[in-house]
């Protein structure tokens, strides 16, 4: 009767019961960090006084901030390497590849729990791992051996039937799911895949689907661990890690979606949201200026060989800039040895590092007013670095075919050889530095001048009376709140500096308004904080004095991050109250020392002389955390 999700959670359950929506606590087996979030996570781990991590495996990857046009990123990398050696953490060096691709290749294990400080951690769900994205502080707590708390998710079953046509890929499957569920349709849910259609999907193809499950707002996505899983692990020389794992035949789901792969056509997500999905046939002929292939979504060996086979013997259109990022050193080496890489180069493609690169705005911003086709997972406004760009999400096959013609084409009309999975993958782990407990005590942790101490919040006061600093609409992403890109990312370990960039593309005066008014409130629409797990979108507003966010609804990870840093996430009971609030209205909330579970809170708009009621959906631990001023304060108080 249990689903895959229920089976894994039951084996790891520490607190609570397996009742949908109930608060639970689970043991975390593995953790994952990347350099854009990792520096802060390890500063937090150090602040807890942890000697050696308590997990079965923790890995620190460098894949985001690799553009070293100043000392800041390089200094962060040296800090990450030394702190990993000090505390028993594997360290994947710059150039080794994208965290999710490498973790799938070398570390993910069926039935294990994985918590990662990156929202696309669910990629490992392709392996049958319960892989959840979270803020860096939650990951630091897991490394310290603390329980990870969440709400027991509802479970949506996506049944796949049949098999994909030539030119249609697993990217089109997840775009179809996004079209049906939307970017907030997965909130509070795990997406489990089943059906006869999954048998034809390799682990890298499944990983594309679980990776982009993050865009649904889902807690995670997961596939069974079956013979395809065993085959992949065997080729990675890890067959001993395999165990069979599937849902019972009579497993109970909260919703069932069925997709016939035989009839699925290529899809495209239009600007500026991953759920703005259309069939490719509706946009054929649109002029293309840039094509970017790679990211943790579509940079596997199979994806790269599909692209190479389409480009073989041809030259890209003279008006198109084509950039390609292989997902890992393993993929890049194999491409180099089978001539796939030379095929790409001969076509006019620019080969980038095996990193996130343009996916997080780290270079390759398109021209003004460009139409950019990208095989990435997000096309949020401004994320590419060019505010006027129109970024669309497509499969590698659509991207490569369109790069050749200079306009959007249907990849089903293109003749190319379908790549076969290799007999085995090339194994070379020399760019992964393992921990050595015997040497750990002698390691000096090196901190560059850009790495600043953690800002400390104050305990919650009994009364908050402040102004509304900003009012925003629905589906505000963490890119809106805390932009990425080459100008901002180097300051991820310097909250004082990065706070100057908060909401810079939405309200340029936000920083000054916070400073002049000693912080205040944020008012938002539905699904506030969707997208990246970056805790800076909560940590920097906390530093600027933001005390509460009142929204129609929240994205899961961002809501947890707000609580972790002592900012109260409040929800409108009557959404019409949102319409009565304007920027710079003065709001007042009293008796905050009396917050209790399931009790609404009264908010007075002093400027307009009206009162409205909000709810919080906080459990007792959440309330204790907020009243202490955040998780770190609570840990210090209880030590």
Q: What coarse outline follows from CA principal-axis ratios?
A: globular
DSSP strand tally? 27
Largest sheet: 7 strands, mixed, barrel
Strand pairing plus helix content: what structural class? alpha/beta
* Average predicted local confidence, pLDDT: 94
**How many helical elements?**
21
| Cα separation of the termini | 42 Å
Detail the poorly predicted runs: none
> How much strand?
15-25%
Helical proportion, percent range: 25-40%
Radius of gyration: 23 Å
Question: Looking across the biggest beta sheet, what order are the strands in?
Answer: 21-22-23-24-27-26-25
Topology:
Elements: H1 4-12, E1 13-15, E2 23-26, E3 30-34, H2 35-47, E4 57-61, H3 71-87, E5 90-92, H4 99-106, E6 113-116, E7 130-133, H5 136-143, E8 148-151, E9 154-161, H6 170-181, E10 189-194, H7 203-212, E11 220-222, H8 227-235, E12 255-260, E13 267-269, E14 277-279, E15 290-293, H9 301-311, E16 321-324, H10 329-337, H11 340-346, E17 350-351, E18 371-374, E19 390-393, H12 396-405, E20 432-433, H13 437-440, E21 464-471, H14 478-481, H15 495-498, H16 510-517, E22 520-524, H17 536-543, E23 546-551, H18 556-564, E24 568-572, H19 576-579, E25 586-589, E26 601-605, E27 610-615, H20 620-628, H21 631-638
Parallel strand pairs: 3-4, 3-6, 4-5, 6-7, 9-10, 9-12, 10-11, 15-16, 15-18, 16-17, 18-19, 21-22, 22-23, 23-24
Antiparallel strand pairs: 1-2, 2-8, 5-20, 13-14, 21-25, 24-27, 25-26, 26-27
Helix pairs in contact: 2-3, 2-5, 6-7, 9-11, 9-12, 20-21
How would you summarize what this structure contains?
This protein has 639 residues and is of the alpha/beta class. It is globular and about 70 Å long.
């Amino acid at each position: 009767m249990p689903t895959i999700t229920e089976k894994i959670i039951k084996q790891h359950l520490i607190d609570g019961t397996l009742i949908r929506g109930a608060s639970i606590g689970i043991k975390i087996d593995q953790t994952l960090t990347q350099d854009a979030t990792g520096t802060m996570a390890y500063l937090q781990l150090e602040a807890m006084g942890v000697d050696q991590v308590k997990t079965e495996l923790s890995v620190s990857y460098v894949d985001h901030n690799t553009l070293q046009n100043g000392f800041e990123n390089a200094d962060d990398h040296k800090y990450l390497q030394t702190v990993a050696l000090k505390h028993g953490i594997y360290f994947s060096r710059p150039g080794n590849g994208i965290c999710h691709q490498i973790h799938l290749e070398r570390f993910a294990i069926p039935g294990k729990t994985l918590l990662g400080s990156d929202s696309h951690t669910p990629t490992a769900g392709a392996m049958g791992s319960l892989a959840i994205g979270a803020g860096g502080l939650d990951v630091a707590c897991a490394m310290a051996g603390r329980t990870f708390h969440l709400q027991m998710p509802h479970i949506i079953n996506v049944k796949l039937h049949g098999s994909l046509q030539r030119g249609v890929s697993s990217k089109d499957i997840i775009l179809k799911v996004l079209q049906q569920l939307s970017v907030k349709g997965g909130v509070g849910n795990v997406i489990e895949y089943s059906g006869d259609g999954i048998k034809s999907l390799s682990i890298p193809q499944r990983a594309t689907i679980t990776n982009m499950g993050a865009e649904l707002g889902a807690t995670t996505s997961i596939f069974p661990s079956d013979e395809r899983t065993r085959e992949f692990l065997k080729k990675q020389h890890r067959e001993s890690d395999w165990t069979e794992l599937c849902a019972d035949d009579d497993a109970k789901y909260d919703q069932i979606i069925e997709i016939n792969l035989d009839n699925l056509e290529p899809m495209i997500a239009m600007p500026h949201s991953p759920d703005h999905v259309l069939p490719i046939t509706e946009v054929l002929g649109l002029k293309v200026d840039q094509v970017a292939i790679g990211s943790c979504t579509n940079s596997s060996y199979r994806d790269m060989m599909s692209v190479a086979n389409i480009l073989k013997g041809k030259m890209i259109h003279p008006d198109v800039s084509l950039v390609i990022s292989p997902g890992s050193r393993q993929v890049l080496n194999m491409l180099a040895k089978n001539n796939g890489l030379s095929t790409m180069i001969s076509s006019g493609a620019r080969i980038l590092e095996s990193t996130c690169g343009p996916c997080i705005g780290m270079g390759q911003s398109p021209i003004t007013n460009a139409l950019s086709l990208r095989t990435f997972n997000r096309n949020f406004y401004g994320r590419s670095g060019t505010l006027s760009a129109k970024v669309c999400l497509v499969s590698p096959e659509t991207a490569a075919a369109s790069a050749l013609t200079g306009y959007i084409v249907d990849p089903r009309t293109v003749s190319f050889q379908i790549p076969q999975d290799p007999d085995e993958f090339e194994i070379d782990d020399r760019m992964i530095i393992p921990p050595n407990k015997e040497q750990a005590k002698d390691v000096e942790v090196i901190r560059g001048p850009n790495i600043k101490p953690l800002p400390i919040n104050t305990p919650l006061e009994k009364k908050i009376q402040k102004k509304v600093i900003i009012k925003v609409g629905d589906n505000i992403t963490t890119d809106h709140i805390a932009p990425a890109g080459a100008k901002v990312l180097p300051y991820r370990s310097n909250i004082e500096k990065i706070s100057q960039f908060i909401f810079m593309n939405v309200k340029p005066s936000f920083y000054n308004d916070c400073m002049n008014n000693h912080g205040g409130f944020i008012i938002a629409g539905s699904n506030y904080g969707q997208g990246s797990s970056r805790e800076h979108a909560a940590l920097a507003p906390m530093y600027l004095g933001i005390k509460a966010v009142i929204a129609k609804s929240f994205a899961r990870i961002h809501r947890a991050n707000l609580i972790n840093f002592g900012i109260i996430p409040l929800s409108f009971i009557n959404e019409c109250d949102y319409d009565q609030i304007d920027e710079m209205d003065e709001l007042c909330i009293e008796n905050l020392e009396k917050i209790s579970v399931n009790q609404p809170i009264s908010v007075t708009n002093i400027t307009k002389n009206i009162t409205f009621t909000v709810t919080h959906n906080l459990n007792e631990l959440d309330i204790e955390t907020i009243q202490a001023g955040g998780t770190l304060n609570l840990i210090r108080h209880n030590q």
